[in-house]
Amino acid sequence: MRGDRFVVFAAAALSLAVALPARAILPIQHWQTAGGTRVYFVENRDLPMLDVSVEFPAGASLDPRDKSGLASMTQGMLKRGADGISEEEIARRLADAGARLSGRFDSDRAGLALRTLSSRAERDAALEVLARVLQRPDFPQAVLEREKVRLTGALKEADTRPESIASVRFYRMVYGDHPYALRLSGEVETIAGLTREDLVEFHRRHYTARAAVIAMVGDVSRKDAEAIAERLVGRLPPGAADEAALPQVRQPVRGETAVIAHPATQSHILIGGPGIKRDDPDYFPLFVGNYVLGGGGLVSRISVEVREKRGLAYSAYSYFTPLKYPGPFVIGMQTKRDQAGEALKVVRDTLREFIAEGPTAKELEDAKASIVGGFPLRIDSNRKIHEHLALIGFYRLSLTYLEEFMKNVERVTIADVRSAFARRIDPDRLATVIVGADEGEIKAAAQ
Question: Is 329:272 a contact under the CB 8 Å cutoff?
Answer without folding.
Answer: yes
